[in-house]
């Protein structure tokens, strides 16, 4: 569960774990929608009830489609954001 800021949002997905986003401000609302669009998470309002939180967490933990989608995101992150690629881009920028 995250408030949906870029750092915690991406870190959660980087471990292949579905995320429950309770967006609070700025990029969190886009990240919440992105999690749902990717099938790797769900989102609720920040003022959601305990019962709603429980139900969404249960869904994320028991429905394997969310875990599969989150693992797919991990694969994409690893392919697209490798440290070697970042180092090459930085080297090109300073050359």
UniProtKB/TrEMBL annotation:
Name assigned to this protein: Erythromycin biosynthesis protein CIII-like C-terminal domain-containing protein
**InterPro entries for this protein:** EryCIII-like_C (IPR010610), Glycosyltransferase_28 (IPR050426)
One Pfam family recorded for the sequence = EryCIII-like_C
Q: Which UniProt keywords apply?
A: Transferase
Domain (Erythromycin biosynthesis protein CIII-like C-terminal) ranges: 4-87
PANTHER family per the record? STEROL 3-BETA-GLUCOSYLTRANSFERASE (PTHR48050), STEROL 3-BETA-GLUCOSYLTRANSFERASE UGT80A2 (PTHR48050:SF13)
């Amino acid at each position: 569960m995250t408030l949906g800021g870029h750092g915690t949002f991406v870190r959660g997905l980087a471990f292949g774990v579905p995320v429950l986003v309770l967006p609070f401000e700025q990029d969190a609302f886009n990240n919440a929608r992105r999690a749902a669009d990717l099938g790797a998470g769900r989102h609720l309002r920040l003022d959601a009830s305990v019962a709603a939180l429980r139900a969404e967490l249960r869904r994320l933990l028991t429905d394997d489609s969310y875990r599969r989608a989150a693992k797919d995101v991990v694969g994409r992150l690893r392919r697209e954001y490798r440290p070697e690629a970042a180092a090459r881009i930085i080297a090109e920028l300073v050359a």
